[in-house]
Design goal:
heterodimer; A: alpha/beta; GMP Synthetase, Chain A, domain 3; B: 312 residues; Ferritin; 10 helices; Phenylacetate-CoA oxygenase subunit PaaJ (chain A); PaaD-like (chain A); FSCA_dom_sf (chain A); Fe-S_Maturation_MIP18 (chain A)
Chain lengths: 163, 312
């Protein structure tokens, strides 16, 4: 059980390779149900996230390589994934890779108020830690990141959007 | 997953394709998790009629499928790179919602799934997406129209997402675990779709004379299909009565309240165009669609229909 979990926790996210699936909060459960049979539960980040298939394949490959012949990857929809599940280690790894980690996710209970102004976030530059940053685009290198620019050191950088 | 392409032994060594289909062969035209609902409680709640639940899930799934396809047609065609990615992302979210909802429909009542040749690897949600005729789809007609200019895309995404978000906010309380989970995830995505399109709506309305003219023209053209979103079909009424669905009529006030905020901010008056009539009273929810849907499906489905056994 412990070994299966260790192996599964090492698998990294295909789009954010500095993060393991455990850091990302996508890995929900690892269960050994037989001699060499493992069941892994993961939660999709976005409904149509194309990285999910790659995550599934990576988990199967790594666990099979570690001697677990039968690997079952199940998708757990409820509760929905939120960036709040990214661990402190994961946030540190993002920042170290030059990506600003997400702030607290907005509440999604009750009616969701309309926001007509561009999303206002307090994002610090991952290079020089300056709070003087500006949004360039709501989409960065992947759809789950926004692109920012630091007005102090002038470096552009990605920010993982709160969801 | 069981059937694999047989490669004659003598060719095996020379064929670059040998071995490719050993462990991860899957249906060639869809996505590749075996079961998108694995690990989710798909028990049908007490007192709920399974065919009603399936028909209701198909309606919501078809709305997302058809809207996703139309929005995806903007990929590589949007005015700039950011909006290209934004629209592609919206299409992707809707496709993900559609997949779960069609899978839910199939799980609730297998008889809704078209029969495919014996041994076809197509999972049920792909059979529903690729092997139904236009008259079997239950999407609202707003989703299926041929794309216009960027202003038209903005107005269509706005109307669609304002309505769908208001619906999903209530669907989070569905007695069906799958619908509740899809809705809980979907509200986060739809809130983004709505706010993205609402900002562009205001921007175009307050931009140049030309951008405002185009925006108003798009609104005028799409407005006749807005009331259809709030019609209550018998399936929706039954699904709402048993606590698994949402009666569209009951979200009208909330949706119009949000839309009015956008119109006010954009200084755009509410259009007066009258609703588009159905055909003998039948609309999208009854399977009555315009010709554009048939053309869209022809393009979307033709390759899969030609190769129902396809694997890669």
């Amino acid at each position: 059980m412990h070994r299966a979990r260790t192996v599964a926790e090492r698998v990294t996210d295909p789009e954010l390779p500095m993060l393991t699936l455990a850091d990302l909060g996508v890995l929900r459960d690892v269960d050994v149900v037989g001699d060499s049979h493992v069941v892994v539960d993961i939660t999709p980040t976005y409904s149509g996230c194309p990285a999910m298939a790659a995550m599934r394949d990576d988990l199967v490959r790594e666990l099979q390589g570690a001697g677990f012949d039968r690997v079952e990857v199940r998708v757990s929809l409820d509760p929905a994934w939120t960036t709040d599940w990214i661990t402190p280690e994961g946030r540190a790894a993002l920042a170290a890779a030059g990506i600003a980690p997400p702030g607290p996710a907005p509440s999604t209970s009750g009616p969701i108020p309309l926001t007509l102004l561009p999303t206002a976030r307090q994002v610090r530059c991952p290079q020089c830690d300056s709070p003087a940053t500006e949004l360039v685009s709501e989409f960065g290198s992947t759809a789950c990141k926004a692109q920012y620019r630091c007005t102090s050191c002038l470096e552009p950088f990605d920010h993982v959007k709160e969801i | 997953m069981d059937s694999q392409i047989d490669i004659p032994a003598e060719d095996e060594h020379d064929s670059a394709y040998a071995g490719l289909l050993v462990n991860d062969a899957h249906w060639a035209f869809g996505t590749d998790f075996e079961d998108p609902l694995a690990g989710v409680d798909t028990t049908i709640p007490d007192g709920v009629d399974a065919p009603t639940l399936a028909a209701y899930a198909l309606m919501l799934g078809d709305d997302a499928l058809v809207m996703s396809h139309r929005v995806s047609e903007w990929t590589s065609n949007a005015p700039d790179l950011e909006d290209d990615i934004a629209l592609s992302n919206i299409a992707l979210d809707l496709l993900g919602q559609s997949r779960l909802l069609l899978a839910r429909a199939a799980k609730a009542d297998g008889s809704v799934v078209p029969a495919l040749p014996e041994g076809s690897p197509a999972p049920p949600e792909d059979a529903l997406a690729f092997f139904r005729e236009a008259h079997q789809l239950r999407n609202v007609r707003l989703a299926e129209l041929v794309n216009g200019d960027f202003a038209e895309a903005v107005v269509r995404v706005l109307l669609f997402s304002v309505w769908r978000l208001a619906t999903f906010e209530r669907l989070r309380d569905s007695r069906d675990h799958v619908l509740a989970a899809v809705a809980a995830k979907g509200v986060k995505e739809l809130a983004y779709h709505r706010d993205y399109s609402a900002r562009w709506f205001v921007t175009l309305a307050q931009g140049t004379d030309e951008s405002r003219r185009r925006l108003l023209a798009a609104l005028e053209e799409l407005w006749p299909l807005w009331p259809e979103l709030f019609d209550t079909h018998a399936v929706e009424a039954a699904a709402a009565a048993s606590g698994v669905g949402v009666d569209p009529a009951e979200v009208r006030a909330a949706a119009e309240g949000v839309l009015d905020q956008v119109l006010d901010a954009a200084d755009v008056p509410r259009p007066e165009a009258r609703r588009r009539a159905g055909v003998l009273g039948r609309t999208g929810r009854d399977g009555m669609h315009g010709e554009p849907l048939s053309r869209m499906l022809a393009e979307m489905q033709s390759v899969a229909r030609a190769h129902p056994m396809g694997q890669w």
